[in-house]
Amino acid sequence: MPTSPSTSSDGYDMALKIGGAALAIGFPLASFAWLSGNLAAWTTGTGPWVPYRPADALLHPEHLWPSAGETTLLVATRIVPVLLMLLIAAGAATIWVRYKNRAGGRKKKVKGMASARDIEPLLAKAIEAKARSLRPSLKDAKHIEPRDTGILLGNLQGTKREVRMGFEDVAVAIMAPRSGKTTSLAIPSILAAPGPVLLTSNKAAGDAYTACYDARSRVGRVWSMDPQQIAHAERTMWWNPLTDARTLDGAGRLAGHFLAASVDANQQGDFWSKAGSNILSQLFLAAALDERPITDVMRWLAFPSDRRPLDILRDHGFASVASQLKGTVEGPPETRDGIYETARQYASALLNSEIAAWVTPQKDVPEFRPSHFVTSSDSLFLLSKDGGGGASALIAACADSVMRAATAQAERAGGRLDPPMLAILDEAANVCKISDLPDLYSHLGSRGIIPITILQSYRQGQKVWGDAGMDAMWSAATVKVIGSGIDDPDFADKLSRMIGDHDVETTSTSVSDSGKSTSISMRQERILPADAIRALPKGSALCLATGMRVAMLDLRPWYAEPGADELAAASARASKAITARALAKANPRQADYDPAV
């Protein structure tokens, strides 16, 4: 029976592979036999050095070295070459395994992601040129430290090319817990910041607060506002939230912070919420105009019939506002009581004397002034618990006041702050609910104010700012960083579509009577499907920068950088001090005997 062309072709392929394998093994084996045989004959004095004849050395060594003994030839031309081949094979296998492990540790490179050329504006040369143009103080400098050119986001995956956002960018980072948002983004950014730093957080021990406190205290003064005693620190500052409330707009913004801290975005439009916020803004305005402490507002809320706020508003030319307040006070009792009770609930944190002490004048305690802070190299750490209600309203109000003071200073300085101010709004959806933050994103970067809002999920932002607000902030952010742990399928699919598709080569083989044929075609495939985004490994992040392809980054945690041991020791000391202060408060008598307190 005649052999089919395909069977004959397969036989030829098999014979070719066998021949190639035999040559790959036989040639070095024969060469080793020739070399080893010559060395054996030379050392034993049983023969001359034979010219290169590897085949004879392997198959008929007795013809080349007739005077050598059988045992000598067996060891020299058989055993030694085989052992050498095995040793080489073992070494090659070890090197290959190490290479694969190292490659695995560097994470598999994803095809279709941005190359260095695609994100060139975020790399060293371009980011330095941008820094010179944005910061007059660097224009004529011969050498600029990388930290002065922009904020490090990480390395382009698989390379040592640093990727930085410039000092006119504004960023949103969506990273799940323990995905590197603090260790790889917040802490390194704070440590490298060239100007004033603002940080909001809901943690102290073992977090950005303890990691950065000592390092930032060597740069400038560290101000800590901790109304709920997360760090159990002594009160070394107070801040007057009514400083910016001497106008109706300013008072309205302050009241809005109390509203946002108490009510989700989808509930802020109802009658009671808006009415309660309006009463707060009117009373805040009266207290600010009469230079009273903010706690007086709680006294006025307790007694709606008190006419002092009405008189203050009229005396300072706010007759229309006084009329609105009077209309509410003299309205139907059930409506008035409901409005006032709503306002009392929003501002209830001011009833706590420990919290109120941070926002009322304190004897022998320095006042924190945002207008002075923004021209310094100081740091402001604002701490509040999740769901802190009115306490988190004060945190948001202070952060907002600082950013507004920075904007005013930038306008006086010609348009931009130099050095720029960094605002790390960590846990922003929990402790820093600034209602119009999405709107601020449109101009903060152009003023040299660099906000990085860190969220655990996209939905978390939607809950605080609503769908339209979160979409606005996402669109306004010139840099978006997406870390591991994205479990929202809709958001993961949205990201997958934004990353886009790439061409994938598909090879198909068919067999017929005339032989085997191979065809190659191209098809479109998602660069990163939603399931791959969900499974993004820890230590990796996606970087979406305006006008550029999406890049995969290798994050740079602070503990893997030079000087990490010193920082870790300082953080451990600060964390231990927090623990000691907490124990001292729980058991005051122990503080008398514990030297750590």
From TrEMBL:
It is found in: Cell membrane. It is a multi-pass membrane protein. This is TraD/TraG TraM recognition site domain-containing protein. The chain crosses the membrane at residues 21-42, 79-99. GO terms for cellular component: plasma membrane. It comes from Streptomyces kanasensis. Keywords: Cell membrane, Membrane, Transmembrane, Transmembrane helix. Its main location: membrane. InterPro entries: P-loop_NTPase, T4SS-coupling_protein, TraG-D_C. Residues 420-538 form the TraD/TraG TraM recognition site domain. The keyword Phosphoprotein does not apply.
